[in-house]
Design brief:
With about 450 residues, this protein is of the alpha+beta class. It is built from 17 helices and 17 strands. The strands form six sheets. It has a seven-stranded mixed beta sheet. It has a two-stranded antiparallel ribbon with strand order 1-2. It has a two-stranded antiparallel ribbon with strand order 3-4.
Length: about 450
């Protein structure tokens, strides 16, 4: 049977791996855990079922052993421990997951007897681990066979998985059904993406971004959703189960959020790319002259006194300040045709195609932090060629901009000699501050302070 969707948490599961089912409006719904089933039963109108059909809900001892990948003897042993409980000679479907989880824990050194004692004492339940025992549907093709089918060598498939940040697949390992469409697209991507090296470079960036999001989700769940229950006096196991139930009621499918964000950001960057082509056409027609490509700008803005604020007011206040700063700098970057490359806690790294936009945006930052309730800011700007890779900008120009920012005092915007030498000021003026020894730079760099001149 094809994969189905848990209507509560959105998890894709094999019907044979469903821990629970519910008959609903003439069909049978599948759930990855009893928690999801119970939540659906309590308020079915809040969830959208997929209307799939399913077979009977009870399993024999032999069927349980076969589906969970163990032996009848092991099933009987786990029954004796009280980790699974038959009723009139049959087991609920959820016990497939429980057996798999117990076996996986046993491989990690946690024997069934110890688990049984923890369950009996009330310190452990296995309910929240049910979904961890699910198996992912596989195709009938190994990675080696699949590579032959699509014309991509096994070594390249393995390199792609490593670049994605996923485990390196074995030659004889069966390909997951959900992986197959992605792998089939590789030949086309190789054909239009500049070859294997360029594609793997892109894959590495996608994988690293997704891994960071997934890692943060786990951290956020533990610190933000579980912690309040622990503060209420619940034990660790109880707090985790309560957090799961709480998050299921308010969560949106992570897949939907990520796809939506990718589309929104993609629209913005596509529009910018199209604008660049229009500029190129006007330049080639002699209608409008652009600044040389090398005259891009990097800017680093930092908040003065952020470390002291964190020490005195605590992490919650520091986190609020970071969010306020992120909101402000995103707004200013958009107004001045720039982009936020990355947030740095108490600071931000910008990129601008026009250095004059970089200076004007920097002056906006130092003027607008105070009305937003933020500490004073200081900014460093530099212009020159940069290297773009994996969503970030690198090179001497960027390094010097960061060093310049460290020299500026609160409410100051310092710019480098490369920017002043190559760009005519517009909407600001500069005054020489003097030569500075910058960390990692061989010779002194003359810095200038940028101030408003009152022009548009």
């Amino acid at each position: 049977m094809a994969m189905v969707i848990d209507p509560v948490c959105g998890m894709r599961i094999d019907p044979d791996d469903a821990a629970a089912t519910v008959e609903y409006e003439g069909g049978t719904l599948f759930f990855c855990s009893e928690a999801c089933r119970n939540l659906f039963v309590s308020d079915p109108d809040s969830f959208t079922p997929d209307g799939s059909e399913m077979d009977r809900d009870r399993l024999t001892e032999k069927e349980l052993a076969e589906r969970s990948g163990t032996t009848v003897e092991r099933v009987r042993e786990l029954t004796a421990f009280g980790l699974i409980e038959p009723h009139e000679g049959s087991f609920p479907r959820r016990d497939v997951m429980r057996v798999r989880v117990v076996e996986e824990l046993a491989r990690k050194g946690m024997d069934a007897d110890a688990l049984a004692r923890a369950v009996a004492s009330g310190h452990l339940t296995l309910g929240y681990l049910e979904s961890a025992g699910r198996r992912f549907p596989r195709t009938d093709r190994t990675f080696e066979e699949f590579g032959d089918d699509i014309g991509v060598p096994l070594e390249t498939l393995q390199a792609a998985y490593i670049a994605f940040g996923l485990p390196r697949p074995r030659a004889d390992e069966l390909v997951r059904e959900e992986d197959a469409p992605i792998l089939r697209s590789l030949p086309l991507m190789f054909g239009i993406g500049g070859g294997e090296g360029e594609l793997l470079r892109a894959v590495r960036m996608w994988g690293d971004s997704a891994r960071r999001v997934a890692q943060f989700q786990a951290h956020y769940f533990h610190q933000t959703i579980e912690e309040p229950f622990r503060r209420q006096g619940l034990g660790d196991n109880e707090a985790y189960e309560a957090a799961i139930m709480s998050s299921l009621r308010v969560s949106t499918s992570a897949d939907e959020v990520m796809n939506w964000l990718l589309r929104r950001h993609g629209d913005a960057f596509l529009a910018e790319h199209q604008f660049l082509h229009v500029e190129t056409a006007l330049d080639e027609a002699g209608i409008r002259q652009r600044s040389p490509r090398g005259d891009e700008a990097a800017a680093f803005a930092d908040l003065s006194g952020y470390t002291r604020l964190t020490e005195e007011a605590g992490d919650d206040v520091a986190a609020r300040v970071s969010l306020l700063l992120a909101d402000l700098v995103s707004e200013i970057a958009d107004e001045h045709r720039g982009e936020v490359v990355k947030m740095l806690g108490d600071g931000v790294h910008f990129h601008f195609r026009d250095p004059r936009d970089a200076v004007r945006a920097s002056l906006e930052i130092v003027d607008r932090v105070a009305p937003r309730g933020l500490p004073p800011a200081h900014v460093g700007v530099n212009a020159g060629p940069m290297i773009y890779d994996g969503g970030d900008y690198f090179g001497r120009t960027v390094n010097i901009a960061a060093r310049i920012a460290a020299q500026a005092a609160a409410n100051q915007v310092f710019v480098g000699e490369d920017l002043v030498r190559g760009v005519e000021p517009q909407g600001y003026r500069v005054r020489e501050v003097g030569p500075f020894e910058l960390k990692g730079i061989a010779r002194p760099v003359t810095l200038f302070e940028a101030v408003r001149d009152g022009s548009s």
